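Example 327.
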Amino acid sequence: MWQQGARRIASRFGQRFSSASSTAGSNRHAAATVATASAVSGGLWFATRQQDSKVACDVDPVAIGAATLGGALLGAGASWKLMSGKLEAEKDRHSKYWPRKIIMLFGAPGTGKGTQGPKIVDELGLPQLSTGDMLRDAVAAGTPVGKKAKAVMESGGLVSDDIVIGIIADRITNADCSEGFILDGFPRTVQQAEELDKMLAAKGECVSLVMAFEVPDAVLEERICGRWLHKGSGRSYHVKFAPPKSMKLDSDGKPVPATMKDDETGEALMQRADDTAEALVKRLKGYHSQTTPILDRYRPKGVVKIIDGNRGIKEVSADVMKGLSSN
Ligand code: AMP
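Predicted structure in complex with adenosine monophosphate:
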């Protein structure tokens, strides 16, 4: 009796395996399902074979269990290898024929690019390329680029187009950009956008999505001046909206710097040298005069999505995710 039931199940799993394996494509879940189904199918088949070969013997549940397990492991190994091969082939085909997904995060300082970017990174598995972070690293390392950029960055001005275009041109050739990348803080001038488009066009590529975060200027000063960052992870805190657990205030209600620590590592938080009210005035002026005209370049291509960034982080995230999938 049990053999007939087992055979039925084995054959059903087997059918599911062959239809799933032809459509699984790049879906890892499908691969895991197929491997499991095949394992069970293989195990049951193996067990029924074992039982058939000793018709006259009593049923030995331990032997059947061991045979089922052994068959399951063999089946799982073989089908996982098969599916891995298919996945690799699909991945190669994808990177050979499909254009890279190139997303641009657009918005004034403090509009949420740095907060929402990591969520897109998690969702799509593409790297976030922040020219601001790369320049700050160059300044910290004292490289020739860093030495040139330091003063202009601290005052809230823009680093020269040549420097940032060079940085991005190099960065997007890295292996982690093979499926695409997320630009954060670049381009910031029309000339940078033109150079970017030229670079991409030379490879038959173009910007796939521009996510433009909008927040009134009046809100940005409070966001920027209360911002504290954890350098290692990029985690962002705010004295009012998202304080670290360790924060203590002095008698004037201002945070005591020594108490500003990262929630996860306990390491010290830092404030950016340009996150001051004075520098922000210059940064916003530069944004409105030099950066916003870039949107006119991409709007006619139908790739611009406007995100109302003047809401809670979760609401903004929900819109960001919607914007990713409907593109
Ligand atoms: P961010 O972290 O994006 O706010 O950038 C910090 C600073 O780095 C800016 O205020 C500029 O001085 C400089 N910077 C970053 N990206 C660019 C860019 N694309 N063009 C010119 N300057 C930039």
